[in-house]
Design a protein that fits this description.
Glycerol-3-phosphate (1)-acyltransferase, 3 domains, 3-stranded antiparallel sheet, 54% helix
Length: 467
């Protein structure tokens, strides 16, 4: 018995020493890197979040209504609200984020892509925005790689908390995202109690200065073009300004991501036309992990080729306080009263994302192919000339941060990716887009369309079979 007691004591002492050393290492990491880590990301502050959420009149009323509607006791309704909050809240781990997540993210990104970021804009933002300002990065959604790409690009400046969809609620992704500061949201869940808890949680962390990343479109683009912005998360962020304690300025930073190859492009474009992927989330994750290890093996053998560019660029920020001053009804009690102002704000942000969107060689090449008849052969000389014309006339003024500048260079960069995927065919000096891959032609040519053009065209909905 004494031996067991001694062993238990040794384990306890070891755990205390390890925890002390890890906390000291975390503090040293913050100090040496001058990181902006908000205190509400730390686990010891979760009790403050719970008090704020469950002390909110809106949540109190929602709990009572849930108990009445579901014919359960108030204790049962409060228990359900706690379950929702536990599901939503992150478990940010500083060392996991900076010692594990950062290196893994960098290795993953540079395995698959040539990563380019418009650092001039982000450095200017850090200089111009007030030190006490709260910042939310509003991002267009192209790929699930977006989470990794944007967080990696901002790694040196801040740690980013994402609103993560249900797709990642599978082991071990659920724990990883929570360790890295992500909070989970159910995008199509209509339970009023859930949304009361989520709304108050978002308001609490926003008021408390947590830097967030939000995908304004609410989901991945199925046709490659910009999507109609969703108002739910934007509404929650704006409503944080109802709190008189929230005196710091709130900025929405338009953040644009683009890729020469979106890893999920086939599945996404097939969903648009009604081809349903019936695999479970676990099967999809397993398939992705298998593909990752296969790619790593090919990389070690020198046989893996990157998929072109992954790019991030930033637009001019929108100061919410100025918008609220000009549109006070955006804080109205009724959502119907808020909706037109939220729609205007969402459109403004999406237009700024569109203005900042960096074009890729594949996007321009696909746009040029799409201007010709399907299946038409194009002389390489004509192709490079039209690519250069598109770059300097049709897309003049659009963000270009790729290293290629001439039509020939842009085509060479695009061709490497397109040939690797068998999307183009060659006959002597002529090229055409493969007849079997016309869906992807539309997908990548759409990615070059500005938001205003997509809005004028109308939003493409998934077919009934895909819903």
């Amino acid at each position: 018995m004494t031996a067991y007691a001694i062993a238990a004591g040794v384990v306890v002492v070891f755990a205390i020493v390890a925890a002390t050393l890890l906390n000291r290492h975390a503090r040293e990491l913050v100090r040496t890197r001058k990181l902006r880590i908000n205190r509400y990301k730390m686990r010891r502050k979760h009790s403050e979040i719970r008090l704020d959420v469950f002390g909110s009149p809106r949540v109190v009323d929602a709990v009572k209504k849930y108990a009445h509607d579901h014919k359960v006791s108030l204790d049962a309704a409060e228990r359900q609200a706690r379950i929702y909050l536990f599901e939503i809240m992150p478990k940010f781990n500083l060392l996991a984020y900076y010692r594990f997540g950062g290196p893994i993210a960098r290795a993953f990104l540079y395995l698959f892509y040539w990563v380019v970021v418009d650092r001039e804009h982000i450095e200017r933002l850090n200089r111009e925005i007030e030190p006490d300002a709260v910042v939310v990065y509003m991002i267009n959604h192209r790929s699930n790689v977006d989470y990794v790409l944007v967080a990696h690009m901002l790694f040196k400046f801040i740690s980013l908390s994402y609103a993560v969809g249900e797709w990642a609620r599978v082991w071990p992704l659920n724990h990883l995202f929570k360790w890295f500061g992500g909070y989970f949201i159910r995008r199509r869940f209509r339970e009023p109690l859930y949304h009361a808890v989520l709304s108050q949680f978002v308001a609490t962390i926003t008021r408390s200065g947590v830097t967030q990343g939000v995908f304004l479109e609410g989901g991945l683009s199925r046709d490659g073009a910009f999507q109609k912005p969703k108002l739910g998360m934007l509404d929650y962020l704006v409503l944080a300004k109802r709190d008189a304690r929230f005196t710091a300025p709130l900025y929405f930073v338009p953040t644009a991501v683009s890729y020469d190859r979106v890893l999920e492009d086939r599945n996404l474009s097939e969903e648009l036309v009604g081809v349903e992927d019936r695999r479970s989330r676990w099967e999809k994750l397993s398939s992705s992990v298998d593909y990752l290890f296969f790619s790593l093996w090919r990389s070690f053998r020198g046989r893996f080729k990157r998929y072109g560019y992954a790019m991030v660029s930033f637009g001019r920020p929108v100061r919410l306080d100025d918008f609220v001053s000009a549109h006070p009804d955006v804080l109205a009690e009724s959502f119907e009263s808020r909706k037109p102002h939220l729609t205007e704000l969402a459109r403004t942000i999406m237009e700024k994302i569109s203005d900042a969107y960096p074009l890729t060689p594949v996007a321009i090449a696909a746009w040029v192919f799409a201007q010709h008849e399907k299946g038409a052969w194009i002389e390489e000389e004509t192709l490079t000339r039209e690519i250069e014309q598109a770059r300097t006339s049709q897309f003049t003024g659009r963000v270009w941060i790729a290293r290629e500048s001439t039509g020939a260079e842009i085509w060479d960069g695009a061709r490497l990716v397109l040939e690797l995927r068998h999307l183009v065919e060659r006959e002597e000096s002529r090229w055409r887009w493969s007849q079997r891959e016309l869906t992807l032609l539309e997908y990548y040519s759409n990615s070059a369309m500005p938001f205003a053009d997509v809005e004028s065209r109308g939003w493409k909905a998934r077919s009934v079979a895909a819903e």
